[in-house]
Specification:
There is one protein chain. The protein is built from 11 helices and 9 strands. With about 325 residues, the chain is an alpha/beta fold. It has 2 domains: about 200 residues, Rossmann fold; about 100 residues, Rossmann fold (3-Layer(aba) Sandwich), CATH 3.40.50. It has a 5-stranded mixed beta sheet with strand order 1-2-9-7-8, with helices on both faces. Strands 5-4-3-6 form a 4-stranded parallel beta sheet, with helices on both faces. The structure holds pyridoxal-5'-phosphate (PLP). The site of pyridoxal-5'-phosphate (PLP) has 21 residues, from helix 3, strand 7 and helix 7.
């Protein structure tokens, strides 16, 4: 099951020791996993999901992909790139109205050849079925990728990522106690949860919630649990997961999705100035701020090894220039 994927990225992504930053937080040793370097049209965590999603679309004989997101969606930009490689038509339904000027991910998605629709209030694919009907009347066979690529098929990318991580930790003789990451549409968290169980890796996940809005009336915990429960069935995992097994740290999402505050800016500056690594304003900036807050407050065990999973998103920086300068 984990072998049936379409190669889109460069894996394994490196694990780096953040030496300078660890000196600032002497109780912790900090590492980073560089999924911002997956290689697909400027990288990001959606590349892992798309390897499974694109393969499934091809297996089903589809010629077109429809997906949805915000205008600065990294998922949509990487989907557009994946479609170029696989020879599929790419239809993106993006929230808001068409801006006068395209920048960041929106500009890249258009350069990558996607057909773009602006869907106003709806940024999570609420109108996908309408477009699908229309395209199929014209003879297309459409594969729908849900918001953020977060289906069980997409989540397989992160089940496989745990396998990759475990191999790296063994090779590098490294133990990791905590993994911090930005959780937003839930596929990454669901995949990591399943992967830790399947490959018996004893690490605590510390997901930082990014978007406080619900998806189709479901909380993010419910979305993640649904994917995890599908996964345990198809992978033959014995453990039964409940809602209380899905944790999300919601302290840092108050400003709302895509709103950049001084917190995100400070976190981006700290990593950039200590380690020369760039975060994004929407996801990793917020999650990194959350992690630094955890370390400052010693909310996790001192003398532990911490891994920040960098999930990409750099292009969005150029769309938030005024908030970040
Ligand atoms: C999509 C995304 C995430 C969140 O991953 P989910 O699987 O949607 O929870 C985190 N960081 C970046 C940069 C992303 O684009």
């Amino acid at each position: 099951m984990l072998e049936n994927k379409y190669k889109l990225g460069f894996f394994p992504t490196p694990i780096q020791h953040l030496k300078n930053l660890s000196e600032v937080y002497p109780d912790y040793t900090i590492f980073i996993k560089r999924d911002d370097n997956t290689g697909l049209a400027s990288g990001g965590n959606k590349t892992r999901k798309l390897e499974y999603l694109i393969q499934k679309a091809l297996d089903e004989g589809c010629n077109a992909i429809i997906t949805a997101g915000a205008q600065q969606s990294n998922h949509c930009r990487q989907t557009a790139a994946a479609c170029s490689i696989a020879g599929l038509a790419c239809h993106l339904m993006l929230g808001g109205n068409e801006p006068e000027q395209y920048d960041g991910n929106l500009l890249l998605s258009s350069l990558l050849g996607a057909t773009i629709y602006f869907t106003g209030e709806n940024r999570k694919g609420e109108d996908i079925h309408l477009l699908k009907n229309k395209l199929e009347k014209k003879g297309d066979k459409c594969f729908v990728i849900p918001y953020g690529g977060s289906s069980i098929t997409g989540a397989l990318g992160f089940v496989n990522a745990v396998k990759e991580l475990k191999t790296q930790l063994t090779e590098q003789n490294l133990l990791i106690d905590y993994i911090f990451f930005a959780s937003s549409s839930g596929g990454m968290q669901a995949g990591l949860t399943l992967g830790l169980e399947l490959f018996k890796l004893d690490v605590e996940l510390v997901p930082i919630n990014i978007d406080k809005a619900e998806t189709y009336g479901l909380s993010l915990e419910e979305v993640i649990l649904n994917i995890v429960q599908k996964g345990t069935k198809i992978m033959g995992i014995k453990r039964e997961f409940e809602l209380s097994d899905i944790t999300l740290n919601k302290e840092y999402d108050k400003a709302g999705y895509g709103v950049v505050t001084s917190n995100e800016k400070r976190a981006i500056q700290e990593l950039a100035r200590k380690e020369g690594i760039l975060l994004d304003p929407v996801y990793t900036g917020r999650a990194f701020y959350g992690m630094l807050h955890f370390l400052n407050e010693k909310k996790i065990r001192p003398n532990s090894n911490v891994l920040f999973w960098h999930t990409g998103g750099l292009p969005a920086i150029f769309s938030y220039a005024n908030d970040l300068k």
